[in-house]
Write a structure and sequence with these properties.
alpha/beta; Rossmann fold; 7-stranded parallel β-sheet; two-stranded parallel sheet; 42% helix; globular
Length: 327
């Protein structure tokens, strides 16, 4: 198979190129920045460049985007140009080129304010059926790009799969209060209960999406680690997250105590990956219980692929008050 990966110098883009090549596929890596897994330096907004990259391509993995960390450094127009116009360019050229599957990397950030229940209400159980309420131009632009994917499936019969991925970046948390209260690995492990996923599992979901796209036609899927919680836990999660975690994964407490780690006192949302597991056949490995087991064996909680990709950052500059500026 010949595949096009956009954003090939980024976290997910590099991981996709590496994995596709290891499986024997020919890959065109497109990015505005150079890198060892990028063989075309160019923009997804450059129609001529996109057209050249599409020649002979069967599958497109569209991971290029402006992210939340760019909100403070880029204009709203930049987000529209890259995340919406760039996606439109790719979709139109994919149709012309006869591409068989188009996999779009979206984000759980599209849910926006739907993720934050009112005070005193249970935690939000976030499935694909929850209506997004984007709270910034990043969420708006990603939701609009999702709609473009659906439009091109409906009107042009392009098989499109949208993957709403939760956190998988290795950088420090952007909230200084969180950084001060928890060790970095502690923060990230807590998030596997409800809002984080390992990049190795993200890549597996993308490969399955491309394989199943022609059969499914169009679909949106949440890509996050499998939570141990149930819908019946939601009220208690807002009031006593450590207590619910002890009930669902009792072995975590000894490992946390051994490291002087802390569980978050309250959880306000839980991402549910059941549809992706059922319809894509996705079987994510890196969930909270599995990673607690790795702690017990003194093993790294990051997958081999996550360790290989490492931290790339989002800006050329360094910032004294966090991994990136906050809007």
């Amino acid at each position: 198979m010949r595949a096009l990966v956009t954003g090939s110098s980024g976290h997910l883009g590099e991981a996709l190129v590496r994995s596709l090549q290891e499986l024997g596929n020919e890959v065109v890596g497109l990015d505005i920045g150079s890198g060892p897994f990028t063989n075309v330096v160019g923009s997804i907004t450059d129609r001529a460049c996109v057209r050249r990259c599409m020649i002979g391509v069967q599958a497109v993995f569209h991971a290029a985007t402006l992210h939340k960390p760019h909100l403070a450094t880029h204009s709203r127009q930049d987000f529209v140009d890259t995340n919406i116009t760039g996606t439109l360019s790719l979709l139109e050229e994919a149709v012309v080129a006869g591409v068989e599957s188009f996999v779009y990397t979206s984000t759980t950030s599209v849910y926006g304010d739907a993720l934050i229940p009112a005070a005193g209400m249970p935690a939000a159980w976030i499935t694909e059926g929850v209506t997004p309420i984007p709270k910034n131009i990043y969420g708006v632009s990603k939701a609009a790009a999702e709609d473009l994917c659906e439009l091109f499936h409906r009107n042009r019969k392009l098989a499109c799969i949208v993957l709403r991925t939760s956190r998988f970046f290795p950088e420090e948390d952007d909230n200084h209060l969180v950084r001060e209260a928890y060790a970095d690995e502690n923060i990230k492990l807590n998030e596997y209960l409800y809002r984080r996923v390992d990049i190795e599992d993200v890549v597996t979901a993308h490969l399955l999406a491309a394989r199943r796209a022609s059969e499914i036609g169009f679909g949106k899927y949440i890509i996050s680690a499998t939570t141990p919680f149930t819908a019946g836990d939601l009220s208690e999660l807002r009031a006593d997250a450590p207590g619910v975690a002890r009930w669902r994964v009792p072995e975590y407490e000894a490992e946390y105590t051994r490291r002087s780690w802390k569980m978050v006192p309250s959880i306000d949302r839980v991402y549910v990956n059941e549809r992706a597991r059922r319809e894509l056949g996705w079987q994510p490995r890196y969930d909270f219980k599995f990673l607690v087991g790795r702690l017990r064996l003194c093993q790294d909680t990051k997958s081999p692929l996550a360790r290989l990709i490492g931290s790339k950052g989002y800006h050329a500059e360094s910032y004294a008050d966090g991994p990136f500026p906050v809007e």
